[in-house]
Amino acid sequence: MYLDTQPLRAERAQPAARPAGSEDREMLRQAALLTRDLHIPSARIYWTDCFGSAAIGYAALIGAMVADHWWSMLLFATLSVLALYRAVLFIHEITHLDHAKLPGFRIAWNLAVGMPLLLPSFLYEGIHAVHHSRAHYGTVNDPEYLPLARMRPWTLPLFTLAAIFMPLLLLVRFGIVGPLSWFDPRVRSAVVSRFSALEVNPGYIRPLPTGDFARRWRWQEAGTSFVAIAILGALAFGILPPAAFAIYCAVHAGVATLNQTRTLVAHLWENDGAQLSLTDQYRDSTNVPPVFPGMLWAPVGLRFHALHHLLPRLPYHSLAEAHRRISAALPADSAYGQANYASLGELVTRLVRATMRPRG
Question: Rounded to 5 degrees, what are φ and ψ at 303?
């Protein structure tokens, strides 16, 4: 992939440039002061939202499998994609939660959502923490970052459409390659380092897990492999009809594609690999405050992704209120306002234009 190291042209009016790596101290101070009372996760909201969404998603999935007409199948499948997508995105919350304040949530999520959809939380835990590191964000060591704005235009559809193959890749990972790797240390090393992370950066090599995380990894992987083998076995022996399997894969691919589209606009992807200050990380991330349709394509607080990078421990249900308070307290031309955008379409257009810039 060709990388352009020339600075990106600004597409909106910007205040006077600050020195590289500078911090907007007032923004950081106000963000901390104004949200001190918003850091307690609500067990009622987490449990009801997550598992209510999962229940709706699975019911709609079954509805799609037994539907008599194509239009009702499509309607149920769409509802299933949206509801299961919302439930799946709680994997992001799991990586940031103080689990002492929400006991049992990670286990329940893995049993009800992660394992049935072949997305156990170990695929994201640890990975996402590196992405939030001041030392690693936007660098070659960041598993969740690629300088997409500096790449060729064809990388964007390739990046998005690759998600279509996720359900099949996960079935192979957990139903075939993963179990085989338990008997061969060399294969196991490759599976852990290269095929055990929800990552954006294909060059990222995951280290071996240790301690409590290694124990969680083992039971999550074993349970997910059981599900994958059961699906493949049921398909092979005619217990699971091919049409039902195709609908399961289509809904799963829909969830993955929707998430990949959201990921495409979560950042501006403009960093050239240098280390960034927290404020500059914020500017390279995005908020899309309008509730609709943001609540569909960026649920569970992810339409406030830039704010999340400022306050990563803030529960998702507090982000809208935090955004309201900070926006009211800071002037419109502050660093905080620079990460706010009107729509998904605006961000996609900006990114496409960035990839089409002349390169010398």
Answer: -75, -10
